[in-house]
Specification:
By secondary structure, this protein is mainly α. Helices cover 59% and strands 4% of the residues. Helix 7 runs antiparallel to helix 8, helix 8 packs parallel to helix 10 and helix 9 packs antiparallel against helix 13.
Length: 499
């Protein structure tokens, strides 16, 4: 293989459709759009439903949500929709194209992110190495590819980090237009705090590596970081948005929520492969990182091992950090100077930028193909995220005013306009509330199902069959089971005098 520097200086055009040129980022982007669309992937999470409802409420009222309108347990309590920008986009897309439109939106964000990441990598390393890193990133991100705000900000995340790394490595200050990315990001998802943290770390890395004129470098980065924090303050909550991620991460009840649990490394998964490859190279001294980049890598790894939802961020962000060290590792190997093979030349041929006309034709064709596939498939949330039949059985009996609902069903109830007991907004309900509910439904020591039922005077119950409380409810006087399948079980309160 030839060296990474030769990748940029010796591009070869590849004829396609009468002289059009294709590229790896274009091919990966088209694949990233078509694969989720053909699978109808992205609607597995119940929170998508309440994001739609929140966006519709804001579109209808012309204001950002500042108080809860959806539950009967916290109705009217202070709650600001901190992801309001993404929720407006989700609601608007759903209103135009339904569930299929949300699948397309999430797939488009995934595709754009991978295309940008691969273009960044190709500017620094061998095409084969860039493709491997992009493949790892895509596989770590795909399980989290959902029609939710965190996936919609992936392109912003990649752009922010990529431009900052470019600025740090070239010893210059970041461009001021990048502040617009942070402004959008902060009003779409709480992961913006990670972007601020990475900006600080990369600024320190740039100052340390500068060796000369460190004070001038520090002043330029300091102005940009101060402006970035100022952009974050432009939101409906003001300075309180800066505190929100820390308040949420400080909640002990997050362990009850699947995406906030630790990844299960007992089963083979892409995270395990990532750990073996990266840690193996590090242990034998092959990858050399600066102090700040080491801390960034360790921080991202710690986050991924703490919460499964952060595995996607580990996969997306580490290639930006590792690109230059991996390229330097290859150049140090003796085999790097040998003549390129036919495979190497073929891979390098697609490393150049695609012709604008090719990009337009490919994207239009991919969008039409994805739209047609979604029209045929007509995707919709699965039963475990949207228990339609079970809820219909409750509503048919007029018992839908006060439902003891499963945490995961709250989003769908909100979408249907039914007041909820609890839902995916853990920050609204708090630790004590969620712990009491989970312990009662789990029949845990100290949990009191009967007291919970008496306190809230429920008219119906909608749970997953896996809850231990279900076995007790089947024999509890005063409750009648009206629906049951593999995904949901529903009860209504018995009328007096009935058996």
């Amino acid at each position: 293989m030839h060296s990474a520097d030769q990748v940029e200086t010796t591009p070869m055009a590849v004829p396609f459709l009468g002289g059009f040129r294709v590229s790896w980022p274009l091919l990966i982007g088209v694949t990233g759009l078509l694969l989720p669309a053909l699978m109808g992937w992205g609607l597995m999470d119940p929170d998508t439903s309440w994001h739609i409802a929140a966006g519709r409420w804001m579109l209808a009222h012309g204001a950002v949500l500042t108080h809860d309108p959806f539950s009967f347990t916290r109705h009217g309590a202070a709650w600001v929709a901190h992801e309001w920008g993404a929720e407006l986009l989700i609601a608007w897309t759903y209103g135009i194209a339904g569930w299929a439109g949300l699948v397309f939106l999430a797939a488009a964000c995934f595709a754009a992110t991978l295309a940008y990441l691969l273009r960044f990598l190709l500017s620094r390393m061998e095409p084969l190495h860039a493709l491997v890193l992009a493949f790892l990133a895509a596989n770590m991100m795909f399980p989290s590819l959902l029609a939710r705000p965190h996936a919609l900000v992936w392109p912003l995340t990649a752009l922010w980090v990529g431009v900052l790394v470019n600025a740090s490595e070239s010893r210059r200050s970041p461009p001021w237009w990048l502040l617009g990315v942070m402004l959008l990001w902060a009003n779409m998802h709480g992961s913006y705090i990670l972007g601020l943290g990475m900006a600080v770390m990369l600024a320190l890395d740039s100052v340390i590596e500068a060796r000369t004129e460190r004070w001038d470098v520090a002043k330029r980065w300091l102005a940009f970081i101060a402006a970035s924090f100022a952009c974050v303050l432009v939101n409906p909550q003001g300075y309180r948005l800066l505190l929100f991620p820390f308040r949420l991460l400080g909640m002990s009840s997050l362990d009850y929520i699947a995406e906030w649990r630790q990844p299960n490394l007992q089963h083979l998964q892409i995270l395990s492969l990532w750990l073996v490859v990266i840690l193996g190279l590090a242990f034998i001294g092959r990858i050399r990182l600066s102090l700040m980049r080491n801390l960034l890598l360790l921080g991202l790894l710690f986050m991924a091992l703490q919460h499964v939802r952060n595995v996607a961020l580990l996969g997306l962000l580490t290639p930006f950090i590792l690109a230059r060290p991996v390229a330097a590792l290859w150049r140090r190997l003796p085999s790097a100077e040998r003549n390129p093979s036919a495979l190497d030349r073929g891979l390098a041929n697609l490393s150049h930028r695609a012709a604008p006309m090719t990009v337009c034709v490919a994207l239009v064709a991919a969008a039409l193909t994805a739209s047609f596939a979604l029209h045929l498939r007509r995707p919709h949330p699965p039963e475990y995220a949207a228990p339609q039949a079970a809820l219909d059985a409750i509503l048919a009996r007029g018992a839908g005013q006060r439902i003891l609902n499963d945490y995961g069903y709250g989003g769908y109830l909100i979408f249907r306009g039914v007041p909820v007991f609890m839902d995916g907004r853990a920050d609204l309900y708090g630790d004590a509330f969620l712990r009491r509910a989970v312990e009662a439904l789990s029949l845990a020591p100290g949990g009191h199902l009967g007291a919970l039922l008496r306190t809230y005077r429920f008219s119906a119950i909608l749970l997953r069959p896996s809850w231990p409380a279900v076995q007790l409810l089947n024999h509890m006087p005063g409750w009648k089971r009206v629906y049951a399948d593999e995904g949901a079980v529903a009860y209504v309160r018995r009328e007096e005098g009935t058996t």
